[in-house]
Design brief:
Layout: H1 3-50, H2 53-58, H3 69-81, E1 85-90, E2 95-98, E3 121-125, E4 132-140, E5 146-155, H4 159-195, H5 201-217, E6 221-225, E7 231-234, H6 236-242, H7 260-267, E8 275-279, E9 282-293, E10 296-306, H8 308-347, H9 350-374, H10 378-393, E11 397-400, H11 411-432, E12 439-446, E13 450-457, H12 478-483, H13 496-506, E14 510-515, E15 519-526
Helix pairs in contact: 1-3, 1-4, 8-9, 8-10, 9-10, 10-11, 11-13
Length: 532
């Protein structure tokens, strides 16, 4: 059934219900009116009968079916008043005169009547179709003593009779209500269909079910906010990624356990199509779009894509790129040395060739021995040796602190060490490149329960107001970013330092920065949390 048909049926049912209620009220009102008006007439006739001199004189000695004077008087009063029944009874309620022969000699039914107390009474006797409206008055002698009862009864109209009397009005009400109901149903259905874009209820429910199924089936998270920053839509993926409760829909961002920085990203205008955000240990791509309809602000919708795995691949590619750059730097260094050797051979300086080769080999051997004698983890040792060649190309001196010492560590900890140490060393290179006497120092210590990596540079350091900001995902200002090339936080606008801190905290450690004639980054890794 269409929406208009449903509204029409509903309105007609309402009209019928109202009509039944009106009919019931009309019947009750007609019964009350009949009892009120006809009761007064019956009471008046009963009083006239009770005050008749013949009745007052003969009633005390009268007998049922004896004499004709009392029946004549009673019938005369009944006829004149238009009543249905008349009866006279003695004090013992024995009927001596009645229009109904079956009552003669029997007890007069009084019901709730108080006539035996000497008071006039009107009311309904009997029930259903046999109910009558009766009036009872006491019959008094000349001294005021009660000597009997005078009763006048009028037939109570049946329900069908009263309904028949009210039928013309009810039909009028039905006609007017039907016209108004049909017109109202059509107008309301048109208005509702305009608001629902002409769709029927089954189409709306189908659309909602399809939308819900589609939202819950998406791997990407979807969060919609209204203009007051209340969540209107949040699929299961979004709740899982952001840690939102199941009853988050309808609640404001300010009342939910969401990181303040993330609240800013969800609520503010987004200049770029995609924005990278670090949530816990997840790297998300967030795309926020403002919603408008007919020029009215409807809020915003934000899609969330988990790029953690892709970021891991990018870090591996970055490591590969670093190795490539290191090999290129080494190839460039070896090419220069080969050119020198070739020139010396052409000049016939054979002793100088031997001396130069021994010097170059000794430098390389000393560097390798210095690293491998202190750092027994192959991955971290290889990283530092490779970074040394890159430092030479960039005009930076890379030093391994003589206090450094590290045994072989588990594979997972080794991967984390190389990732964080590589990020910190690269940032330090960026900070000091181009400065006179550029130096980067690396200290690796085995503290028993933890491994500590300290990277120190002699650059300009980190501004005090950015000591924590550089570890956040992309919230640093451009001033800090531009200064970052000399501060050791070249990743402040990206995610290198933020991810490095997440890696450290994942093991129960941490990453912090201080200033001491340059930037000093200290990374701590707890061994126990990463043991297999």
């Amino acid at each position: 059934m269409s929406l208009a048909g449903q509204y029409l049926v509903l309105q007609l049912l309402i009209v019928l219900a109202v009509l039944v209620a009106v009919a019931a009220i009309s019947l009750a009102e007609s019964a009350a009116t009949f009892e009120r008006t006809e009761g007064r007439r019956a009471l008046s006739a009963a009083e006239a009968l009770g005050n008749n001199p013949t009745v007052r004189e003969l009633l005390p000695t009268a007998e049922a079916r004896a004499g004709s004077s009392l029946p004549a008087v009673a019938e005369s009063v009944r006829t004149v008043s238009g009543s249905a029944q008349v009866a006279l009874a003695k004090m013992d309620r024995t009927v001596v005169t009645a229009s109904d022969p079956d009552l003669l000699g029997k007890t007069l039914p009084l019901g709730d009547s108080r006539v035996m107390e000497g008071r006039a009474w009107t009311g309904v006797l009997g029930s259903g179709n046999s109910s009558v409206l009766s009036a009872h008055v006491p019959v008094l002698d000349d001294s005021g003593k009660m000597i009997g009862i005078a009763s006048i009864s009028r037939s109570f109209p049946s329900t069908l009779e009263r309904l028949g009397d009210a039928a013309p009005n009810l039909l009028t009400y039905l006609g007017v209500a039907s016209v108004l109901g049909v017109a109202g149903s059509l107008l309301m259905s048109r208005r509702v269909k305009r608001q629902t874009l002409g769709m029927e209820p089954r189409e709306i429910s189908g659309l909602v079910e399809n939308r819900e199924a589609m939202l819950q089936g998406l791997k990407e998270g979807v969060v919609a906010l209204d203009p007051h920053e209340r969540i209107t839509v949040a699929n299961q993926s979004a709740r899982t990624i952001l840690g939102l409760p199941d009853d988050c829909v309808g609640k404001g961002l300010g009342t939910l356990p969401v990181d303040p920085a993330l609240k800013v990203v969800l609520a503010r205008e987004q200049p770029d199509p995609d924005q990278l955000v670090l949530v816990g240990d997840r790297l998300l791509v967030m795309n926020r779009v403002a919603l408008k309809s007919h020029g009215r602000d409807m809020g915003s919708i934000t899609t969330l894509r988990d790029r953690t795995e892709m970021s891991s691949l990018e870090r591996e590619l970055g490591a590969t790129r670093t190795v490539t750059n290191t090999l290129r730097a080494q190839a460039h260094e070896f090419a220069n040395q080969l050119h020198v050797i070739s020139g010396l051979l052409q000049l016939g300086e054979y002793d100088s060739v031997i001396q130069f080769v021994n010097g170059a080999t000794g430098d390389r051997t000393r560097l390798n021995d210095e690293v491998t004698s202190r750092i027994h983890d192959p991955a971290l040792a290889a990283l530092l040796i490779a970074k040394a060649s890159l430092a030479t190309e960039r005009g930076v001196e890379l030093r391994l602190d003589p206090r450094s010492s590290l045994p072989r560590v588990p594979e997972e900890l080794s991967r984390d060490l190389t990732t964080v140490a590589g990020n910190l060393v690269d940032n330090a290179f960026d900070a000091v490149t181009g400065l006179p006497g550029a130096t980067v120092s690396v200290l690796v210590e085995d503290m028993g329960d933890e491994v500590r990596v300290t990277v120190r540079d002699n650059g300009p350091g980190v501004p005090n107001d950015a000591a924590e900001e550089i570890f956040q995902q992309g919230f640093s200002t451009k001033e800090h970013a531009s200064a970052g090339k000399g501060q050791g936080q070249g990743d402040a606008r990206g995610f290198g330092l933020a991810i490095s801190r997440v890696i450290c905290r994942r093991s129960g450690g941490g990453l912090a920065v201080t200033n001491d004639d340059g930037a000093v980054f200290t990374a701590r890794f707890m061994k126990g949390a990463l043991q297999p």
